[in-house]
């Protein structure tokens, strides 16, 4: 199964169009949040991405809420917006959680979760699937300014459920970087997008 993964478009229409053009190479697309900027413009890129007719799994970032993302995706038949829930595609379970985890310092506009809230939402994460989290797991592709800014709840979920793949974003300085938690591949996708084969 070939998957085209991306994150943090932040209203970048050029990047969105590039993903649409490349979507023919993939079986499934994954968008790990932050389509908008400070809760504005989520429609800008989703309107372009709606041209994708392949199954597409999206989670909200901290730049848009799950409600805002679901509304923007209205009428996009092949899209699945996940936030504390899952979907099975081609026999593989996908599970998603959005928002900034832990709570960011950005203030009221940021769509965030506490570690405790995220921990509860991640209890349904299935074994041996694909986890999409806007926030990276703590200690993996999450470093900025010499500090690790990822989520302990996401890390705990990975250690518990051992997904085949984790797709995240959020920490811009780690775009395109990979790590492993045990045998699980963790990729901070970024807006350029990466085409990869789902690990067995």
What would a concise description of this structure say?
Helix content is 21%, strand content 26%. With 200 residues, it is of the alpha/beta class.
Commentary on this structure:
- With 200 residues, the chain is α/β, with parallel strands linked by helices.
- It has one domain (2-197): Purple Acid Phosphatase, chain A, domain 2.
- The protein is 21% helix and 26% strand.
- It has five helices and 13 strands.
- The protein has helices at 13-22, 42-49, 66-72, 115-121, 152-161, and strands at residues 2-6, 28-31, 56-58, 79-81, 85-89, 92-97, 130-133, 143-144, 147-148, 165-168, 178-181, 184-188, 194-197.
- The strands form three sheets. A six-stranded mixed sheet has the order 5-6-7-10-12-11. A five-stranded mixed sheet has the order 4-3-2-1-13, with helices on one face. A two-stranded antiparallel sheet has the order 8-9.
- Helix 1 packs parallel to helix 2 (42-49) and helix 4 packs parallel to helix 5.
- It is globular, with a radius of gyration of 15 Å.
- The termini are close together.
- The mean pLDDT is 97.
**CA gyration radius, whole angstroms:** 15 Å
Q: Mean pLDDT score, rounded?
A: 97
Could you describe the largest sheet, including whether it forms a barrel? 6 strands, mixed
Find the CATH topology. Answer: Purple Acid Phosphatase, chain A, domain 2
**Strand content of the residues, in percent?**
25-35%
Structural class by helix and strand composition: alpha/beta
Per DSSP E runs of 2 or more residues, the count of β-strands stands at 13
Number of domains: 1
Helix content: 10-25%
What name goes with the CATH superfamily? Metallo-dependent phosphatases
Strand arrangement, largest sheet? Answer: 5-6-7-10-12-11
Oligomer: single chain
């Amino acid at each position: 199964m070939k998957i085209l993964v991306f994150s943090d478009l932040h209203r970048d229409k050029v990047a969105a169009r590039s993903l649409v053009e490349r979507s023919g190479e993939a079986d499934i697309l994954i968008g790990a949040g932050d389509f908008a900027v400070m809760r504005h413009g989520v429609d800008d890129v989703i309107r372009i991405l709606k041209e994708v007719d392949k199954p597409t799994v999206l989670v909200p970032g901290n730049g848009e809420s799950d409600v805002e993302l679901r509304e923007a995706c209205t009428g996009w038949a092949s899209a699945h917006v996940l936030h504390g829930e899952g979907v099975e595609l081609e026999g593989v379970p996908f599970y998603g959680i959005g928002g900034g985890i832990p709570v960011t310092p950005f203030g009221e506009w940021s769509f965030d979760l506490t570690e405790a809230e995220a921990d509860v939402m991640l209890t349904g994460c299935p074994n041996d699937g694909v986890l999409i989290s806007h926030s990276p797991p703590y200690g993996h592709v999450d470093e900025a300014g010499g500090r690790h800014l990822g989520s302990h709840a996401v890390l705990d979920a990975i250690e518990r459920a051992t997904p085949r793949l984790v797709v995240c974003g959020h920490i811009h300085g780690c775009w395109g970087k990979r790590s492993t938690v045990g045998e699980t591949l963790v990729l901070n996708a970024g807006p350029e997008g990466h085409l990869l084969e789902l690990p067995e």
